Amino acid sequence: MPGHHYPGDPESSAPVVSKQSSRPRRNHQRLHTLFNACLQHGYCPTHFKDTITVVLRKPGKNDYTQPKAYRPIALLNTLGKVMETIIAN
């Protein structure tokens, strides 16, 4: 996303994992330690699973009084998505 705006948690962790970070190596090491601890203990912080659901209008619908005219979009926590991607790969 452009600028410093990130979907999901208002206190988003996206700047921490961003390539634009002022200390990418240090942040990488911290995330590595955090994710390894999660895997070793078999625990995923509930904060990693937080979502914010936004309801968007579907374009081209004639009647927006009907629930079918809307689409829910779930914005997931950034750190949770990063950890899931690393585990999946």
From TrEMBL:
Residues 1-26 are annotated as: Disordered. It comes from the Eukaryota. This is Reverse transcriptase. It comes from Penicillium diatomitis.
